[in-house]
Structures are given as C-alpha cells and as structure tokens.
Amino acid sequence: MLEIRHLKVKYAGSSEWALDNISMDAKPGQITLITGFSGSGKSTLARALMTLIPKFFSATMKGEIQVNDRLIQSYTRSELIKLCGYVPQYPADFVTTLSVEEEVALILENLGFMPEEIISRLDEVFTILEINILRNKLQTELSSGELQRIAIATALAPNVPILIFDEPMARIDLKSELLLVRLLKKLAKEGKTVVAFEHRLDYLLEVADNVIILENGQITAQGKPETIIKDLLIIDPPEISLMKIPNSSKIPASFTDAHTSLKEFLL
Ligand SMILES: Nc1ncnc2c1ncn2[C@@H]1O[C@H](COP(=O)(O)OP(=O)(O)OP(=O)(O)O)[C@@H](O)[C@H]1O
Ligand SMILES: [Mg+2]
Q1: What phi-psi label fits residue 125: left (phi over 0), alpha (psi between -120 and 50 degrees) or beta?
Q2: Is residue 245 a part of any domain in this protein?
Q3: Which domain does 127 fall in, by range?
C-alpha cells in the first residue's frame, strides 16, 4: 500500500513546485494509472516514490509518503528495492556493458536470491515477456524498444509487491503493448500494487482501477476510468482525441463506448 499525503516537490534552482499538494493512495490488487501532459509531474512523482528525489535529484520535498504504513525515508535502500520495482522512463540511461541475462541475474544476486532461484526467476520473466531471444545479447546491441522490455524484466524479476512503471508503453510496439497490459492486469490480480505513469492510454485505461490526472503538478481529477472519461478528453494525447467522436458533441460514457462509436463512424 502506498499513501501519499500533501506531497510537494521543487527541484533545486527552480522557482515552481513540480508537484504541489499531491495526496493519493495506490492499493494492492489494483492498477493505479497516473496520466497528464508532458511536464505535468509524472516522472517527478515516480522518482519521489523510489526516493530518487531527494537522494539523486536535488530538490526540496514536503509532505509524506508511506509504504505499508511506514514513512518511505525510514527504509534502507536494500529494504526498499525488496518492496518496490521501478521501470524508469528512459531505460537507455541505465545500460551497462553486461549481457541482458547477466544484468538481471546480478540484481537478483545482490538481493540475496539463491542460484537455482535466480535461474527460475530468469526463465519466468523472459518467458512472460517473450524475450528469451534477447537473453544472451549485450544491452549495448539492443533497440530502445528491446531495452524497455529488459527494464520491465528487471523490475519484475525480484517478484516485489509494488511496481512503478514510468511510461512503460513508450517505445514498444502494439503487440508488446497488449502483452504488457495483460501482464499488469495479472500482477494486480496476484495482489501487487501496480502504479503506471503513462499518457498512451488506449488499452491501459480499460484495465485501470483508478485513474489520476496531473496538471501542472496538481491532481485535477481522480476516479474510476468510466467516471473520469470526461476529464480525460482535455488531456488530448492522440489516442484520447480519438474518443472525441467526429460530428458529435456527445461525450462517450466509457472508453469501450468511444471505441464502438468510432468504429461505427469509420466503417
Ligand atoms: N531534473 C530536473 N530538474 C529541474 N526540473 C525538472 C527536472 N525534471 C523535471 N523537471 C521539471 O519538473 C516538471 C515536471 O516534469 P516531469 O518530468 O515530472 O513531467 P512528466 O509528466 O514526467 O513529463 P513527460 O511526459 O514529458 O515525461 C517540469 O516542469 C520539468 O521541467
Ligand atoms: Mg516523465
């Protein structure tokens, strides 16, 4: 369980709050989808949840983040990585000279997994993500979409209860996007707390349990996808603008309705 109360973040050297009075929960067994325009504060919130702010990004921070009823700053780094997995927005920034398999195995070794457990975790995540073919490749040989999927494998491998994905759909093709949406749903069903920061909403929106809209560092709306759909129309990434049904002032009651109307219009 993640609980955020009155969180404010201002990067060093900036006069504006990148996050301003954020209060929200992300619950086990649910997919919490946090969306908003570029610059609205999604990555800043993801970094704060991983304590990268203020540990690696110099910033003033106010308010509270609790993980399982304990303040996040009371966890040691090794305790936190046993609780939270993180897929950064730009996995290419984290590439090392190790092979894909060596990289994921090293993380598991550092977390104290036994050799036979490491092999079974590697087999499981590479199979789930359909990336067995990449196992022995060097990370430096991979495309950005492949690196994205390796970053997801790395976050999933330790089987932690909380997963934070910063734009997991960026750079992946439609087939991988659908696979990932199914996977997030499965992880939530297993009882994990899944938090996805994303503006590519088309398929993810249908499986989200709670949607939060960020604008200029503030939460402007939150609720179930079907109740928040009217607020999503203002976000206007390409996928959502598809929901504005041509020649109609009607706002669709659900995402599925929007798709159906659009299909009717196009066919
Ligand atoms: N390292 C940083 N130093 C200073 N300001 C930053 C830093 N990172 C982000 N910001 C600023 O904080 C605000 C929120 O940015 P953030 O990257 O969190 O938005 P975002 O919603 O993730 O955007 P995107 O969709 O483009 O990834 C923006 O005004 C941005 O310019
Ligand atoms: Mg971002």
Answers
A1: alpha
A2: no
A3: 2-224
Residue 252 has what DSSP assignment? P
Helix (H, G, I), strand (E, B) or coil at 131: coil
Q: Is the CB of 36 inside a 6 Å radius of any atom of ligand 1? A: yes
Q: Which two tokens stand for residue 256?
A: 């599925």
Q: Whose CA is nearest to atom 1 of ligand 1?
A: 57
* pTM exceeding 0.85: yes
> Which CATH number fits the domain that encloses residue 57?
3.40.50.300
Domain total of the chain: 1
Domain for residue 45, yes or no? Answer: yes
The model's confidence at residue 170, banded by pLDDT at 50, 70 and 90, is confident
Ligand 1 center–CA 7 separation, angstroms: 16
For residue 216 and ligand 1, the question of a CB distance below 6 A is answered with no
pLDDT of residue 153: 95
By alpha-carbon position, which residue is closest to atom 9 of ligand 1?
A: 44
In a domain, 10, yes or no: yes
Residue 11 alpha carbon to ligand 1 centre in Å: 9
89 lines ligand 1 (CB under 6 A): yes
Given pLDDT bands bounded at 50, 70 and 90, which one contains residue 245?
Answer: very low
- The token pair at 89 is 């927005």
Q: Which residue's C-alpha comes closest to atom 25 of ligand 1?
A: 38
- Strand, helix or coil at 118? helix
Does residue 265 belong to any structural domain of this protein?
A: no
Please tell me the total number of residues recorded for the chain in this structure. 267
Q: What atom of ligand 1 comes closest to residue 44's alpha carbon?
A: 18
